[in-house]
Write a sequence for this structure.
């Protein structure tokens, strides 16, 4: 009597070890988060520039203007002129 041959599963070859990240390496997710953080942090400064360069009538418009206007330098000049003439 012959016994049926049972095929034993072969073991998988061992996986090569995963390369550990070095301290200086970052993934694309890290860079995407950093870019998002920079944009969120820089937006208030940009918005201040846009609003400072518009007339009073243009500031409250809807939709709000997203590009700087042409009144920035006259407004800065007026702010310094009026700021230095007043005494506390």
């Amino acid at each position: 009597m012959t016994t049926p041959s049972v095929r034993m599963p072969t073991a998988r070859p061992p996986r090569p070890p995963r390369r550990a990240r070095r301290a200086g390496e970052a993934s694309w997710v890290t860079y995407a988060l950093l870019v998002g953080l920079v944009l969120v942090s820089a937006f208030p400064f940009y918005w201040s520039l846009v609003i400072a360069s518009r007339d009073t009538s243009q500031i409250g418009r809807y939709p709000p203007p997203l590009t700087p206007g042409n009144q920035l330098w006259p407004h800065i000049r007026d702010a310094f002129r009026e700021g230095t003439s007043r005494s506390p």
